[in-house]
Amino acid sequence: MIMTRATALLALFALKAAAQYYPYVEYSGTTFFDGWDFYGAIDNTTWGNVTYVDSADATAESLAFVNAAGNAIIKVDNSSTVLSDGIQYRKSVRLTSQAHFEVGSLFVIDALHMPYGCSVWPSIWLNGILEEGQVWPAAGEIDLIEAINLFDHNQMALHSYAGCVQPANVTQIGKALIKNCNDTTSSGCTVAETKQNSYGPGFNQANGGAFGLQFDIAGIFMWFWPRLEIPASVTHATSTSTMNISDWGIPSAAYPAAGCNITEFFPAQELIVDITLCGLWAGFPSIYAQDCPGQCFATNIAGNGSNYAEAYFEIPAIRTYTLANLSISAAPQTTGAAAGSPSGTGTAAADQTGAPPSAGVSLRLTRSGISGVLGAALAGMLLLLL
Question: InterPro entries from the xrefs (predicted)?
């Protein structure tokens, strides 16, 4: 029997709905900052003009705290004076999860406010855990939330070694910009969000929204929902409830396994939240000049910092799930980097000399037979769509 594209899509969504995800690690409320390592060093990955503070300084200088509403605030220093000589950098925050996330993971991020402004480069992303001797992007990178300067939309991407691409004619809402995940410009295979208010003032004025990421053997899929369009499965979720994504709809970005062997290119990942300034994307002269006046450092970072009043995340919760029914208490695992020391090795232009984590214990997920069958079926169904 020949399956039409419409029939295949219906079957695909039916199979995806059959997957049930179990709660893994939740970051919310007064304990939001438990289970993270603070970078505690200069930005040596995107070469932004920031010094990422350690946990003690983040607390003392109110750069990472839980506000009266119970939401996490992660921000750039907007009160200190930075000299224009370029010797001193502005302080910011980079968090790296102590938990590791294998294929078979699901992420939901609820955000009320996103950092934006000239020179500002925020991101929430997954970075692959490198083995000894490897350099970025050997373990892959998954960018769920990333934008710069005065962008009015979010941009999603994968980074990998050669051999991983986004197939043609994928079913997604966003606009594909680059299909090769090993793109030589280091942009990766990128998709621009086409829904309104996914970043910048529009996002903040609309009371934010939610983002979803499915990291599965069948592919990597990303969603954005404005506040009034967040699916019931997400709005009704609790710290102990399972998650079924049957009401998530068509993803904003789709990277099916038909174009990229997920288990080959994306081993265990760490979750990272950061805000850098200028650097190799936001501060690249020709890119910066498209939206912003003057020079990235001299016009923005130097001075009293008052122009960074909007450079902060406000996040009620980040919830993560797995296909395996794991004990939540067993989930957090150290990354091998002490709190306050650098624990990651790269985004678009990684520090190729950075040492990989050496003492971390990655929690390997063992999925049930049914989920393995589900993944294989999804992969086959996706092939029919191409």
Answer: Beta-glucanase-like (IPR000757), ConA-like_dom_sf (IPR013320), Glycosyl_Hydrlase_16 (IPR050546)
Q: At what angle do helices 5-18 and 369-385 cross, to 10 degrees?
A: 160
Q: Answer yes or no: pTM beyond 0.70.
A: yes
What residue segments make up the domains of the chain, in order of their start?
Answer: 5-385
Quote the radius of gyration of the chain (alpha carbons, Å).
20
| CATH fold of the domain at 5-385 | Jelly Rolls (2.60.120)
The number of residues in the chain equals 386
What is the tens place of the pLDDT at every residue in 322-361?
A: 998 875 544 544 433 333 334 333 333 333 222 222 222 2
The one-letter code for the residue type at 4 is T
Give 32's DSSP letter: T
- Which tokens is 281 given? 């994307």
Cβ contact 90:307 at 8 Å:
no
Distance CA 301, CA 295 (A): 10
Contact 153, 108 (CB under 8 A): no
Nearest CA among 42, 100, 260, 105 for reference residue 170: 260
283: which 2 tokens? 């501060």
pLDDT at 187: 87
Give 124's strand partners.
145, 273
**Distance from first CA to last CA of the chain, Å, rounded?**
17
Average pLDDT (120-146) is 95
Cα Dmax for the chain: 70
What percent of the chain has pLDDT above 70?
A: 79
Task: Give me 368's structure tokens.
Answer: 């049930």
DSSP secondary-structure letter at 229?
Answer: G
Nearest-angstrom CA–CA distance, 122 and 91: 14
Task: Return the residue matching tokens 């929430």.
Answer: 124
What is the Cα–Cα distance from 351 to 341, expressed in whole angstroms? 15
pLDDT over 70 (residue 50): yes
Which are the contacts of 339, defined by CB distance < 8 A and separation ≥ 6? 37, 38, 40, 54, 55
The string of DSSP letters for 102-131 reads -SSEEEEEEESB---STTEEEEEEEEE-PP
Please check whether residue 201 is in contact with residue 116, taking contact to mean a CB–CB distance below 8 angstroms: yes
Task: Please give the positions annotated as active site.
Answer: 141, 146
